[in-house]
């Protein structure tokens, strides 16, 4: 990521965060009158962070040389950043100050160790797959392959979840909360882009999606960041119907950049019968690393 791009990302991220907070929400007096900016002024952010207006203006313009952790903490409190946003801002500052830093992780890893495949296969009651930080699916167990049959049916190998969400019309039927998964996908990629600014493969993926999908481009410009950690995902599976599954994303410490994503359902939960039907897939749907489906859809 070029230095100018990083500085622009810092500027846009900070201006978008202060635009969403009103003086009343920040505990500042409202003297009435017409405000020419939405949200907080620079002077109000500086006041809340206990720094000078000149210093905050310099930071917002991307000149972050020498900015300390204490200043980042103060800005995070002033702008009410959550943990993900605070980490994102810190990553942007690191990227601006050391653009040639070698990342401590391979966000685009393309292989998984045999041990990880064994772990997936041992999860017989959960749909589980391994993905990298680019959202490529690198390995699955049988239940995950049965659940994600359409996402894995891709001419692009390894299959990429962001491409599926934004370029495959089947995704809008598969994800019953398509807006939510679209937000999470873009937020995850933006978080990774700040963490590994020299990752050209990730930059290429983002350029592709920005060019091919107006909805991706709009979300990318919003500068929202996200971690896909845990919650409930609502699916509509083409074979068994609706499924409301609990998910957890578990980072693999031995393989930085890789994440195991699991989907589970209590035996007494709604849709338990449908989920059970997924555990008896067609004989061809064996546990394996993703590969092209026998009947692939059109190129995407």
UniProtKB/TrEMBL annotation:
The segment annotated Disordered runs over 281-300
Q: Which stretches make up the HTH cro/C1-type domain?
A: 13-86
Q: Where are the transmembrane segments?
A: none
**Can you name one GO molecular function term for this protein?**
DNA binding
Q: Which PANTHER family match?
A: BLL4672 PROTEIN (PTHR35010:SF2), BLL4672 PROTEIN-RELATED (PTHR35010)
Please give the name of this protein.
XRE family transcriptional regulator
Q: Which organism is it from?
A: Streptomyces violaceusniger
Q: What is the lineage of its organism?
A: Bacteria, Bacillati, Actinomycetota, Actinomycetes, Kitasatosporales
